[in-house]
Amino acid sequence: MAGRMQKVSPIGYDKIDTEHFTIVEVMARIQTCIESQEWGVVRVASARLISEMMRHFEDEEQLMALRSYPMIEQHQRNHDCARACLSRFEREIDQTTPSEPAVRRCFGELAKIIHHEITDDDPRFVAHLKMLER
Ligand SMILES: [Fe+2]
Ligand SMILES: [Fe+2]
User: Fold this and answer.
1) Residue 121 C-alpha to ligand 2 middle, in angstroms?
2) Distance from the alpha carbon of residue 97 to the mean position of ligand 1, in angstroms
3) Of the candidate ranges 2-6, 16-20, 67-71, the one whose mean pLDDT is the lowest
4) Which ligand is nearest to the CA of 24?
5) DSSP symbols for 77-123
6) How large is the average pLDDT for residues 11-29?
7) Overall pTM > 0.70
8) Pick from 28, 38, 40, 29: which is nearest to 3 by CA?
9) pLDDT tens digits, residue range 62-79?
10) How far is the CA of 82 from the centre of ligand 2 (A)?
11) What is the set of domains in the chain, with CATH numbers?
């Protein structure tokens, strides 16, 4: 993939920021272990990533519904892309001998989707939350 996982800039909503920070941290660890082909560690860290990400998306989706966010469908589509990408990634790393290029490709796709989540979809949603607070 192009470059490392970027640092997270906070978007100003503590719960979401904390979860993003954890997700990016776990992804950085996974990336390092893909490079050294430590598949056992990749699998353990990925199980953590999957549970963190699933919980995060569910929380956001609940909050979007609760706050009648008008762009919920578009936002949810990106979450669904991430979920689909995660299961492809899981399939790749669950092979007896994972193919490093295939794992990298999948992980790169996931990183792109998460980057979009953190820098585009979520800031827009947080702007909506802040508007309601005013
Ligand atoms: Fe998010
Ligand atoms: Fe999101």
Assistant:
1) 6
2) 32
3) 2-6
4) 1
5) HHHHHHHHHHHHHHHHHTSSS--HHHHHHHHHHHHHHHHHIIIIIHH
6) 94
7) yes
8) 28
9) 999 999 999 999 999 999
10) 10
11) 14-133 (1.20.120.50)
